[in-house]
């Protein structure tokens, strides 16, 4: 028997809001959420990327037109972390169909490929040293396990970033054939396995609309992510 049926004369309490509607509207955005990026996020992505890379490497992994390019072709291979609607960290990837990265991997998306090429991971300067880089990478790699045709993730990085990516489980593959100006890179890879299990248990890993609840961890001291 329901409570209403047992006590028909007790009306539910009508609680009045403790704050004004205007204040409520300002807090309708989730405190923290992860979702795929789209072309409307491109400018915010590029601003974070430019600040993070120009001072260190002198160039960006992706220029604005390339950001829009990949967010148009394969937005499902991107991931953005938002705090109250503001982008604070992101990853952009695309599919690749060869064992090693070549210059074509910088601009092409191969829909039949089984390798996800991670082009860039960047964190807004005011949110660094909070563990957001490692947490977002972990979440991204778990999401890739839900994609049935993906078998591994690859990236290229400068040598000072190798310890950071090793902590996320990446292994060194060797020197990269790609050079940008006077910069050289190391290729790293991460095996994507456990597809059958992850597909059965993917609801907790797919892009959520609820806030992140993962605890923050300390990042590698040599890397400002």
UniProtKB/TrEMBL annotation:
Q: Where is the N-acetyltransferase domain?
A: 32-203
Reaction(s) catalysed (UniProt annotation): a 2-arylethylamine + acetyl-CoA = an N-acetyl-2-arylethylamine + CoA + H(+)
Matches recorded under SUPFAM superfamilies: Acyl-CoA N-acyltransferases (Nat) (SSF55729)
Q: Name one GO molecular function term.
A: aralkylamine N-acetyltransferase activity
Q: What is its EC number?
A: 2.3.1.87
Per the record, the pathway is: Aromatic compound metabolism; melatonin biosynthesis; melatonin from serotonin: step 1/2
Localisation? Cytoplasm
Q: Cellular component per GO?
A: cytoplasm
Concerning Gene3D superfamilies, the annotation shows: 3.40.630.30
InterPro entries cross-referenced by the UniProt entry: Acyl_CoA_acyltransferase, GNAT_dom, SNAT-like
Per the record, the GO terms for biological process are:
circadian rhythm; melatonin biosynthetic process; response to light stimulus
Q: Please give the superkingdom of this protein's source.
A: Eukaryota
Q: Which UniProt keywords apply?
A: Acyltransferase, Biological rhythms, Cytoplasm, Melatonin biosynthesis, Phosphoprotein, Transferase
Q: What is its main location?
A: cytoplasm
**To which protein family does this belong?**
Belongs to the acetyltransferase family. AANAT subfamily.
Q: What is this protein called?
A: Serotonin N-acetyltransferase
Q: Which species is this record about?
A: Gambusia affinis (Western mosquitofish)
């Amino acid at each position: 028997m329901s409570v209403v049926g047992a006590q028909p004369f007790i009306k539910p309490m009508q609680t009045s809001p403790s704050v004004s509607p205007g204040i409520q509207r300002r807090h309708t955005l989730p405190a923290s959420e992860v979702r795929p990026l789209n072309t409307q996020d491109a400018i915010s992505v590029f601003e974070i990327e430019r600040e993070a890379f120009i001072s260190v490497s002198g160039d960006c992994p992706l220029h604005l037109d390339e950001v829009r390019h990949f967010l148009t072709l394969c937005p499902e291979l991107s991931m953005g972390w938002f705090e109250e609607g503001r982008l604070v960290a992101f990853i952009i990837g695309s599919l690749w169909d060869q064992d090693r990265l070549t210059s074509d991997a910088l601009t092409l998306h191969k829909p039949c490929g089984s390798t996800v090429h991670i082009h860039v991971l960047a964190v807004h300067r005011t949110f660094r040293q909070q563990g957001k880089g490692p947490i977002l990478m972990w979440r991204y790699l778990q999401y890739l396990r839900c994609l049935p045709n993906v078998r591994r993730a690859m990236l290229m990085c400068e040598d000072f970033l190798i310890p950071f990516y090793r902590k996320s489980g990446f292994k060194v593959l060797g020197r990269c054939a790609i050079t940008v100006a006077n910069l050289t890179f190391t290729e790293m890879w991460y095996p994507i396995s456990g597809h059958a299990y992850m597909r059965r248990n993917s609801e907790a890993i797919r892009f959520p609309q609820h806030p992140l609840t993962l605890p923050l961890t300390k990042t590698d001291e040599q890397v400002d992510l």
